[in-house]
Amino acid sequence: MKSISYDLNGSTLTHYLHTNEMLYVTSLINKDTPIDTLYDLVDLYDIGISFEVEIEKNQEDHTLIMKYQLEQDYSSVTFAKDSLSSIQKLQVAQNVLNLGKYFEKNTEFVLVMSPLNIYIHEKSLTVKVLYVGIKGAMPVTEEFSGLPIDQVKNLLGFLFQLNEKIFSTLSTQEQVANIQFRQAVDEAKDFHELEEIIQKEHDLQKKLLEIRQQEVAKKKEEEEEEDEVEESIEEEEEANHNQPITIPTVTPSPKKYTKIIAISIATLLIGGISFYFAKSYLFPSSQANPQENHFEKGKNLVAAQLFDEAIQHFDKVDFKKLTKDQLQIVLSAYINANKPQRIIDLQPNLVDDVLDFYIKDSNFEAIKKLKSNHLLIQFEQAVIKDDRKTILSLINKLSPKQLDQRRIFLIAFTYMKEHDFNQALEFVKKHKEKKFEVVLSHIQKNDYTKAFEQAKLQKSKFLMQIVKEKEMEYISKSNISITEKRTKINAIKKEIESLKKEIIK
Prior knowledge:
This protein has about 500 residues and is α+β, with helices and mostly antiparallel strands. It contains 22 helices and 10 strands. Helices cover about 60% and strands about 10% of the residues.
């Protein structure tokens, strides 16, 4: 029988796919625990928050065997979350919250809330928990020893965490909005506050959906009207075919004129609703201190993609008091407003983050334009210009933290370009880049096949390019025929160009 097993709360949960049964085998804290003390778990099915369960106690090893029968159309959060819309997720979040509130009141149970054992009905979005323990009788790991509110927040964090592929397709506005919502959930102090956050987000998503639907309906109406006008023109042209040409005086149809005005008013109303709603969402009344007030306004302006307006507020914020996630929001605002130098001047510690952003985006022109009064900027600008002298002169000035793997590779490669292979090898040894050292050792022996294999094993496009560059250099100096040399070099050039597209990840 096909099955999948998972670790849940330190015990094994097995899903038998053919029968849709779930078997949970756990231990008892006290081997003498009578089986009837566990019957409260059966009642959870009767009140609709768990599944039907059969409980057995193994007298030999004192384990507890719990057999659950999954109901039709239920899937775990792990498998269901990516198929849910934002509004559906918010409905699920409310149902998860209600589940947490139940176990907050009924303290005889040990709540275990994981993406593996919280199940969602694909149509009604009802939420059920597959396994719950009895306090004092069944064990609980540290992961699930927290309060129900903490477990609910952790699960909602997972539910609204988008995978990298989906997240990368979102606009900056949508990415920031997702981060903001998850942050608000994480900071909620109790179920009442969490419920308010979920309700506010639900109202926002519902209103935005209504506005989108109105705009789609309006566009459809306009398209239909255009089609009617085109048909009318075609009919008129056909009727007037071969008739004497006259220049008519056109008087707008009162009916059509009224329709145009109605459409304009509808547009204004929709725009007015959008503006009013956006204003109340972007600039909520707040009793927060100036630091928090400016950050909140800036953050919400970033969500609306009003980056120039956002940085006017961020200019007044003390960056040292911000969390890592908050700093990323601020950073995205300055970069999208094309003001990277401004954030570097305000917070020099962010220079590496700014450079990292542009390096990953292969935006080397932006790096060239930065003021070169910072060692890292000088280094990256020297790399762009292939200014080997400057690169090597900065080695001892950069801190170990600043010398990440990419920069170590660049420095070693610079030594190699300067025909100082021994120095390159010594440098990577010093910085304990063992895998790079192996690659260089093969290059030193002119064994480029093995060198490339090692670089490929490391999944380093940059290192693979270094190997190909050195192989091309070796071939160009070899004694093979010019024709063969040209053929091999051209083939390597194509490989290098392909690698360059993904050189810096």
